[in-house]
Structures are given as C-alpha cells and as structure tokens.
Amino acid sequence: MNPRQTNAKAFKDSSKGIPEATVARLPVYLRALQGLKERGVETVSSEELAAAAGVNSAKLRKDLSHLGSYGTRGVGYEVEYLVYQISRELGLTQDWVVAIIGVGNLGRALAGYGGFASRGFRVAGLLDADASIVGERIAGLTVEHTDKLETIIKDQGVSIAVIATPAAAAQPVCDRVVAAGVTSVLNFAPVVLSVPEGVDVRKVDLSIELQILAFHEQRKAGGPHEEYIEVHP
Fold first, then answer.
1. Which residues bind NAD(+) (predicted)?
2. Which of 35, 38, 79, 205 has its CA 20 to 30 A from that of 153?
3. Whole-number Å distance between alpha carbons of 98 and 177
4. Residue 186, SS3?
5. Helix 57-65 and helix 20-38: axis angle, to 10°?
C-alpha cells in the first residue's frame, strides 16, 4: 500500500467526530494551501503552513490528525493532496447551490464575488422584495421577486440561503427558506434568527467585529478605563 492509499484510509477512518474548533480552522488552512499551490509549492512543513494560517504548529498538526493526515517526517505535507483532503471534509468536492435574499449594497457585493465558484459554491438565485430592483441583471443573474423564493429553491436545488435583508425582514425570510427545505443559512442581517433543530445558521455581523477591534485598539492605546468609585451618601 503506497503512502497516498494509507493516508486515504486513515482519512476515511477519522472523518467523524472532528471538533467544531478544528472545523472552523479548516477553511483557513485550505486558503493558505491554495495560495501555496498557486505558487507551485508541492510540499510544506507544519511550521510553514501554521505560519501562513496564523496558528501554532502544534495546533495545526493536531487539527490535521483528525483528518488522518500526519505528514511525512523531514518532508512535510503534500500540498495538493492536503487540499483534496480538506476540501472533501468540508464538502467542497461537490457544487453547493446558493440563493442570496436581499440585493442591497451587501447583497450586490456578495453576488459579484468571484471566489464562490472556485470554492464549490454556485449562486443560482438573487431575490429582493423591492420592485425597483427586480429585473436587474447582476453578475449574470436576474433579480427575482421574493414571491418566487420557494419556486427558485425547489427548481434550482438551493442548499444554502444567504440572508442579506434588513433586520425586520430576516426572520420571516428565514422561516420561508427553512419551510422550503433549506437547512443551512448564512445570516448577514443584524438580528439573531430562530430556527428549528437540524438547521445550521452562521451569523456574520460586521459591526460586532468592528466593535471588538475597537476594544482591542483602546486597550493597546491605554485608552480610558474608568474606575468605579463607591460613593456613600
């Protein structure tokens, strides 16, 4: 049995029970590996890959061990094969059909993002409730009215719904996509969505991320830290 076959068997045996924290880092490793592959790099050490991904090498080796990939001592990891391993674990060796609901500035930017197709995602529907936007062509797709949401989900085989609507519309839209059979939602609306068990929601809130960065900037700058003084009457 050659090393590739050994790795494949180990990967198959270890593909269950991967910690959520590891799953969250796999796309970061994949992005770093794809950059290496584009530069023609064939093998990479754990230290080099960890540096490119912004983690320590011990954590990276432990994460990759969950995939059954341990590298070769003195050589490192085979870049192309590790790309395949991680892509397969993340489900990126098949196409996932995406619908974007809400075609404001953010929705337009997402629709025009060229990186989806190369990462296994195909945007097949753009929907909005604003009649002035319906009918526009964006990134090769015609914006449809949200009245057609269920039809597009069914006809296009949508697996992932991206919600980029105003906050007030997000929950009703989420309810509709879930009722239509979608079980994965990426939420950009500034609201927490309520979904039934078995539906996965990932929330992206840019304002929260900026506020966290502002906190760290204040700490680094030695900004105002008010001390609470007990005042007795």
1. 102-107
2. 205
3. 12
4. strand
5. 100
Which residues neighbour 40 within 8 Å (Cβ) at sequence distance 6 or greater? none
Assigned token pair, 142: 């015609």
The pLDDT tens digits of the residues spanning 111-160 come to 998 888 777 899 999 999 999 999 999 999 999 999 999 999 999 999 99
What H or E segment, with its residue span, contains residue 150?
Answer: helix 149-156
Domain boundaries 96-209, corresponding CATH code: 3.40.50.720
102: annotated binding-site residue? yes
User: What are the structural domain ranges in the chain?
Assistant: 3-89, 96-209
Which residues neighbour 8 within 8 Å (Cβ) at sequence distance 6 or greater?
none
- Answer yes or no: are the C-beta atoms of 161 and 140 closer than 8 Å: no
H helix or E strand, kind and range, residue 80: helix 79-89
- With tokens 């590790």, the residue in question is 82
Class of domain 3-89: mainly alpha
- Annotated ligand binding at 162? The verdict is no
Q: Does 223 show up as a binding residue in the annotation?
A: no
CA distance 74 to 59: 19
State the residue for tokens 């050490």: 45
